[in-house]
Amino acid sequence: MQSRSTGSIQAASSAISCMVRRRRRLRALAAHEGLHLADCAAYSDSVNDLPMLELVGHPCAVNPDSRLRRHAEVAGWKVRDYRTGRKAARRALLTAGASGVTLGAVSAAVAIRGWTSRRRVS
Fold it and tell me: Any bridge partners for residue 61, and if so which?
């Protein structure tokens, strides 16, 4: 049986070793500065910073990406979202607009189908 590497195992291994290096560096920096990580706070918007956030006593997800938000909520961390209302409103309008276009297209298709079927009957 011949085995081949698809790269996914290597990528996962690389990501884990990167996380280990980040944690090691953060611990070394804290020790050098005389800081107790349990007393420290860390803020991030990306799941890429989980190694740092998991080491401190007061992690906070600020304007987090979806994966970090999910992790923070499960872990009971503070989550702060300071994105503007305009951005949230724009997202809502785009969603509503897409729904309206879809509904309009379906309605038009139904109307055209009904119109063409009545013409054939006549």
Answer: 44, 79
Encoding tokens for residue 99? 């729904």
pTM above 0.70, yes or no: no
**Residue type (1 letter), 51:** P
Tell me which residue has tokens 């951005």.
87
pLDDT tier at 83, thresholds 50, 70, 90:
confident
Two tokens at 77?
């961390």
- Backbone torsion region of residue 61, taken as left when φ is above 0, otherwise alpha when ψ lies between -120 and 50, otherwise beta: beta
- From its phi and psi, is residue 79 left (phi > 0), alpha (psi between -120 and 50) or beta? beta
Distance between CA atoms of residues 107 and 101, nearest Å = 10
Q: How far apart are CA 90 and CA 96, in angstroms?
A: 10
Amino acid present at 21: R
